[in-house]
Amino acid sequence: MRIMTTLHFAESLRELVGDVDVVLSDIWGVVHNGLESFPEACEALHTYRSRGGTVILITNAPRPADSVQRQLRKLGVADETYDAIVSSGDLTRLYVAEHPGRKMFWLGPERDNSIYRGLDAVTAPLEEADYIVCTGLYDDETETAEDYRGMMLKARERKLTLVCANPDIVVERGDRLIYCAGAIAELYRELGGEVIFYGKPHRPIYERAMALAGERQGHQIDRRRVLAIGDSVRTDLTGAREFGIDCLFVTRGIHAEEFEGLDQLDPASVMELFGHPPKALMRELKW
Predict the structure, then answer these.
(1) What's the mean pLDDT in 201-216?
(2) Where are the strands (E) in the chain, listed by range?
(3) Domain with residues 95-197, CATH architecture
(4) Is CATH 3.40.50.1000 the right assignment for the domain spanning 13-60+201-282?
(5) Alpha-carbon 121 to chain mean position
(6) What's the CA gap between 199 and 10, in Å, rounded?
(7) How far apart are the first and last CA of the chain?
(8) Which residue ranges make up each domain of the chain?
(9) Mean pLDDT rounded to a whole number for the chain
(10) What is the pLDDT of residue 267?
């Protein structure tokens, strides 16, 4: 992985993947915005696959991969766009499965109930629970993490571990930003609570994605031949850098307003904005 202090703006994915065997692509903000898919991005990933590359979608969605796939299909993203999906929901489900008999307080909207579907999970109110699984806010259209301060204070008093099934703080929904489970988890951590994060930027989701890519390619994957794609400095860029792989940063996503005039930034400003800059930037993914 190369560290730079200047920005490289790419016109297309094709100029970046000549020596890349595997693409680990974010979904929300790169492939769709929650309401509609981005056809050029889907075409770019499909074209890369048709030329022998492997595409693993990695997402902080607090749902298992099959649920994510159903959402992608509804948004018009063809199965042929990717080889496999790894979600933070999958990893959270593994945690629940490894703690049989322990009582779980589930914090999140009803649409995320697949987080424990098919598992021998015992749910309980906060006062009786052994740990918390947070998939999001009950009503992310109107609430913020502050609405949960009282609940988190009670959880901290009981010394409950909070398992965060989506480390994202915010995500796009159409042209709006809504709060995610990561916002509550960060509040709980600020209050002194113990948090286990599944999903980007943490290693387990990358390790799982690399294992699946290795199965598709039939050999262990060299990280120097992997490209991550994402739209979040905090999760996608940081996660790729800490895992030791290059990153293509898509600027149309959650940071869109911050990235106006990026091409005029001096090196100091680049470092302030990104830390270590990505391998390349592109407004939106296209072949």
Answers:
(1) 95
(2) 22-25, 54-59, 84-87, 103-107, 122-123, 131-134, 161-164, 170-173, 176-179, 194-197, 226-230, 246-250, 280-282
(3) 3-Layer(aba) Sandwich (3.40)
(4) yes
(5) 24
(6) 27
(7) 22
(8) 13-60+201-282, 95-197
(9) 90
(10) 65
- DSSP H helical segments within the chain, as ranges? 39-50, 65-74, 88-97, 149-157, 181-190, 203-217, 238-243, 267-274
Cα(217)–Cα(213) distance, rounded to whole angstroms?
A: 6
Do domains 13-60+201-282 and 95-197 share one topology? The answer is yes
Average pLDDT over residues 255-274: 64
Report the candidate in 13, 10, 87, 2 with the shortest Cα–Cα distance to residue 53.
Answer: 13
- CB-based contacts of 192: which residues, under 8 Å, 6+ apart? 156
Rounded distance between C-alpha atoms, residue 46 and residue 32, angstroms: 15
Q: How far apart are CA 33 and CA 285, in angstroms?
A: 13
138's CB contacts (< 8 A; 6+ apart) are 107, 108, 109
Which residues pair with residue 132 across a beta bridge? Answer: 105, 162
